[in-house]
Amino acid sequence: MKDLNCIRSKKAFIIDMDGVIYHGNKLLSGSLELVGWLEKNEKSYLFLTNSAERSPLELSQKLERLGITVTADHFYTSALATAAFLSTQRPDGSVYVIGEPGLIQALYDAGFTMNNVKPDYVVVGEGRGYNLEALERAVKLVLGGARLIGTNPDLSGPVEDGIVPACGSLVMPIEAATGRKAYFVGKPNPLMMRHGLRRLGASREDTVIIGDRMDTDIVAGVESEIETVLVLSGVTTLQDIPLFPYCPKHVLEGVFEIPA
Ligand SMILES: [Mg+2]
Which of 11, 78, 81, 215 is 20 to 30 A off residue 165, Cα-Cα? Predict the structure, then answer.
């Protein structure tokens, strides 16, 4: 279930981060070599993450602390995708945000203003700004006509000492109280893949997506017709693969297999 030469021959690489490059603050085997190989072979590459907390510059600095130099233009987050999507829907609109600075900055950069009285959108990411007061306000604003947006549908996310609720879980109380359903922009929404391809300036035939989750990375690749590489260094085991109705094109132990 793998053809390394086929993977290596691709011109563009879309790479998930958690479970692929690092786990929390621990670098995974082969990450440094992978980036070196991508640079040396003049591949286009983009790190694509559903996390909306950090800006591309902060992600670049995080990798730098772990020992890998990658400039900020090689990162694309669900916060950027959400801001790009909303700016096509309602240019210069207003938002009420439950989330971290990475999300707020992306929305400001896309021309949005913050509004906690009558916003066009309530946008939920993950982060420490989540509390009962913010929930109550979000419910009131959605019932008052604001559209409900989640940056990504992930129900939980890995941290060093276990699992924490992520955006998909944090949106649920607002959906339950208002009877409205959120629209999620991050993976597996193919919108995020299209944005990624546009950033790379690559066609889908020339591109692979490398990820550790079947229900986000792999299904996103399948639905966007981009060749998929599942790595077993994250949340998915070999035994999990048959439980899904779709399968990855390639299965690797980790990204360390890719550099020749
Ligand atoms: Mg991952």
Answer: 81
Strand-pair category, 113-114 with 156-159: unpaired
Residue 248 CA to ligand 1 center (angstroms) comes to 15
Q: Which of 104-108, 171-175, 228-232, 233-237 has the lowest mean pLDDT?
A: 233-237
- Among 195, 14, 36, 167, smallest CA distance to 99 is for 167
What is the whole-number distance in angstroms between the Cα of residue 103 and the centre of ligand 1? 19
Q: 80 CA distance to ligand 1 centroid (A)?
A: 18
Is residue 162 very low, low, confident or very high in pLDDT (cuts 50, 70, 90)? confident
For residue 15, the enclosing domain spans 4-50+187-257
- Listed residues 184, 201, 222: the one ending a domain: 184
- Model pLDDT for residues 80-128, shown as the tens digit of each residue: 999 999 999 999 999 999 999 999 999 999 999 999 999 999 999 988 8
Provide the CATH number for the domain around residue 108.
3.40.50.1000
What is the rounded CA–CA span in Å between residue 251 and residue 53?
A: 29
Q: Which residues are catalytic?
A: 16, 18
Q: Regarding beta strands 250-252 and 26-27, do their DSSP bridges make them parallel or antiparallel, or are they unpaired?
A: unpaired
CA 20 – ligand 1 centroid, Å: 6
In a domain? residue 249: yes
**Would you list the DSSP string of 132-148?**
HHHHHHHHHHHHTTPEE
**63: in domain:** no
Residues 97 and 172 in one domain: yes
pTM of the model: 0.93
